[in-house]
Design goal:
By secondary structure, the chain is mainly alpha-helical. Helices cover 48% and strands 0% of the residues. The protein contains 3 helices and no strands. The longest helix is centred in the first third of the chain and has 27 residues. 0% of the residues are buried.
Length: 127
């Protein structure tokens, strides 16, 4: 009869064995990747340090600088847009409101609202 400690030791041993087997299998799968380059392939030309810097440093920094400049330029315009404390100059927006605009909301009577609310869904679930 196994005791609790013996069962735990067996489980730990099986876990250690499965870990060792999986490591060996992973190493066996990786080994072909360490093979030498085939002789039929051409040797790659050497890259100069300037070419290395150009491709991996200078071009990405140039792209980042152009994107930053394109991002900053609109804020450098003479119109600063809305500033806190000023009166709002934009038109009113009502998303999901009347299709003819905000001003047409004044033309709607309460009877029209009640009639329309019976025809459509919503929280009342009367589709």
């Amino acid at each position: 009869m196994f005791t609790h400690d013996a069962a735990r030791r067996i489980r730990r041993s099986l876990l250690s064995l499965s870990l060792a087997v999986s490591l060996v299998l992973c190493a066996a799968l990786v080994t072909p990747a360490a093979a030498d380059t085939p002789t039929a392939w051409e040797n790659a030309p050497d890259v100069s340090p300037l070419g290395f810097l150009l491709v991996l440093v200078i071009i990405p920094l140039g792209i980042a600088a152009v994107l930053a400049l394109l991002t900053i330029l609109p804020s450098m315009a003479s119109d600063r847009g809305y500033e806190p404390g000023q009166a709002w100059r934009g038109d009113a927006e009502w998303f999901g409101g009347p299709t003819r605009g905000v001003r047409s909301a004044a033309e709607v009577t309460p009877e029209q609202i009640e009639t329309r609310s019976k025809d459509v869904g919503g929280t009342s679930a009367s589709w």
